Amino acid sequence: MDRLSEATLDRLPASVERFGYDREDVATGIVHLGVGAFHRGHQAVYTDALLADDPRWGILGVSLRTGETRDALSPQDALYTVSAVDGDGARRRVVGSLTGLMIAPEDPTGLHVRLADPEVKIVSTTVTEKGYSHDPATGALKEDDPDIVHDLRHLDHARSTIGTLVAGLRHRHAAGIAPFTVLACDNLPANGHTLRGLVVRFAELLDRDFGRWVADEVRFPSTMVDRIVPATTDADRASVAAALGLEDAWPIVTEPFTQWVVEDDFGLGRPAWEKVGVEFVSDVAPYELMKLRMLNGSHSTLSYLGWLMGHETVAAAMGESALARLVSDLMEKESAPTLPALSVDLAAYRADLLARFRNPALKHRTWQIAMDGSQKLPQRLLGTIRDRLAAGAPIDRLALGVAAWMRWVTGIDEKGGAIDVRDPLAARLRAIADAAGPEAARLAPALAAVGEVFGADLPADPRFLGAVTHALDRLLRFGARATVEAVVKETAT
Ligand code: CS2
Known about the structure:
Blueprint: E1 16-18, E2 28-33, H1 37-41, H2 43-50, E3 58-63, H3 68-73, E4 80-86, E5 89-95, E6 98-103, H4 108-116, E7 122-125, H5 146-153, H6 161-175, E8 181-184, H7 191-206, H8 208-217, E9 223-226, H9 234-244, E10 252-254, E11 259-263, E12 279-281, H10 285-308, H11 314-318, H12 321-335, H13 346-358, H14 366-370, H15 373-390, H16 396-409, H17 426-436, H18 440-448, H19 451-454, H20 462-491
Parallel strand pairs: 1-5, 2-3, 2-7, 3-6, 4-10, 7-8, 11-12
Antiparallel strand pairs: 4-5, 9-11
The structure holds D-mannonic acid (CS2).
D-mannonic acid binds at residues 187, 226-228, 295-296, 299, 368-369, 376.
């Protein structure tokens, strides 16, 4: 079968949409760090929709570590298919907004030249929660992180996201070119603000004057990003090939829903993304909190518990009625009450989320969402817990979510089999769990003492520790299914 590419584009069936601009006219106004599935199913799609109107904003996709994306997409001229799927079928579109692909470690100098190009006005990031070299509980730069230590000494060969951004800014500063805007697009709390703190700190450690320039001149708008984009499978590749009549080595399969709320604070202009559905606001924080606490908090809870019950996908986990009820109640009764006032109907938002989780066409693995929990828990569940405790409100369901994570990181499932725990702290968490043994009264406080996840306040709060220990005890004794059923029954009002 021939490959999707510029040369084969006109063989696409009419059922597949395609971009309506000449790619020769497209300039590179954006460099994106972390050109994974999420970026290609979200920002690159919004951008694709407006390049016909304004060709200044093509995207150079950069991988900071491995070359898989470049190797898959370069032979197809950086074209790829996005399929939006649900129970009614699939809508497919070939996206052309990537103007090129680079792998940072292969050509750091070339990347820094591109970052210094005045045509580049925005540098955006989706490098996952663990890609920011920060302490998730405080948001501070981990100055002893080996990549940060390396990058402070060898900025020309920067490995980290922060080092790469600073290398680009430093070249611009030296050449008298106005800085690009840094656009954070990961699920971190106050993502732009957090990234600003990290970049400014790194720049100050290099040189105080340069640090001041970064603090004064560079804009870091925060964003709320939302689209469920599971990892692509071989079955996805096969169904896309069948629909296209052409091979696409790395298609994206996602849901129809998409949302992007962005703080309108760009130093050198921006694409008119509002024409294609992006919401520009002056303060993104309330949207971000809503999304992280409602969607991601329940997504993680659903995934740990669903996986422990033996469900491979989110949709299958939602088929457990008690579990579906638990996450619905978690959103309604524990997360929503902590959110600031917003002109969003939270009951409708919750109902939409439950329907999105049930999407039968998405094979979103619970294991994928369970990954990197140490980096996700603070903004998904622990902030909500802090607000609930401050209000003297109960935290039973949130505590069960945290306990399910603790159960997961022990690395041993309910049948005694191994769990493939992927987390930057996996080895340390496992060692703590092994030393404590399967006794909730020892295990819960030992894991809660991991400061970069729980801070100093939560482990010292008997209400938090009591609720988590109780939930973990039940999970260890009776298993996830019986525990979820019992909690749902007890908390029903
Ligand atoms: C998920 C998110 O993998 C995860 O941890 O919770 O990637 C989720 O699918 C997105 O945030 C949805 O916008």
